[in-house]
Specification:
Low-confidence stretches: none
CATH topology: Alpha-Beta Plaits
CATH class: Alpha Beta
CATH architecture: 2-Layer Sandwich
Largest sheet: 8 strands, mixed
Strand content: 25-35%
CATH superfamily: Nucleotide cyclase, GGDEF domain
Mean pLDDT: 91
Distance between the termini: 49 Å
Number of strands: 8
Number of helices: 6
Number of domains: 1
Order of helices and strands: EHHEEHEEHHEHEE
Shape: globular
Radius of gyration: 18 Å
Helix content: 25-40%
Structural class: alpha+beta
């Protein structure tokens, strides 16, 4: 039986680990003859899985996990009812980042390898995108898939000019739709308009996330 698509209207959040692909690549090259030999897998792979677990654990609930997208967690809520508002929503994002940092710090306590490749774990960081709007949930191969222009926009926002503004560090990028909908204060944020092909210009607000 085919499950009919249903319409939803709520927040869309992406938590993306920056530096993930290059980190695993240099680890693969550095350990091609030892940790990868005889079917072994370097500790780095399990550790990155732990980072993703930590992100999901902090975001779900109040959000619902849509899927893991390589180095990113994509989550949503079908309505606004259970979501924190204002400063509490920023605190939810900051708590997720704090857990990411806590797990990142554990690498130095548990890893035996101190090669240059494995120590690039310190270069990993996290960015969040929070958008809101209508979308459709449809069943594809038995899994719920989110589709629609606002879902595409949330993903396009991963490519932005935040690091040109901040220089470095973790951040949260909230669209004006999310800010207005959840009453998030913008006093400490940097306005950052964005333009993407096939979309009207969109206003966003950039928040630097504090390191623990």
């Amino acid at each position: 039986m085919i499950t009919p698509p249903r319409r939803a209207d709520g927040p869309l959040v992406l938590a993306d680990i920056g530096g993930y692909t290059s980190f695993l690549r240099v680890v693969q090259v550095a350990h091609a003859e030892d940790a990868f030999a005889d079917g072994n897998v370097p500790d780095a792979y399990g550790f990155v899985s732990s980072l993703l677990d930590g992100i999901v654990g902090e975001l779900v609930p109040p959000f619902t996990l849509s899927k893991l997208e390589g180095d990113a967690v994509f989550a949503y809520a079908e309505t606004d009812a259970a979501l924190p508002r204002g400063d509490a929503l920023l605190a939810c994002i900051e708590a997720c980042y704090a857990e990411f940092q806590r797990r990142l710090g554990q690498a130095h306590d548990t890893w035996t390898c101190r090669c240059d490749a494995c120590m690039r774990i310190n270069e990993l960081d996290l960015k969040f995108i929070l958008h809101a709007g209508p979308y459709v949930i449809q069943s594809i191969a038995g899994a719920a898939e989110l589709v629609g222009p606002e879902v595409v926009m949330a993903h396009r926002l991963l490519k932005n000019d935040a690091l040109a503004v901040l220089g470095s560090g973790a951040y949260a990028l909230l669209t004006a739709d999310a800010v207005q909908r959840f009453g998030v204060p913008t006093d400490a944020a940097t306005p950052m308009p964005a333009t993407y092909e096939h979309y009207e210009p969109i206003d966003t607000f950039l928040y630097r996330l504090p390191r623990a």
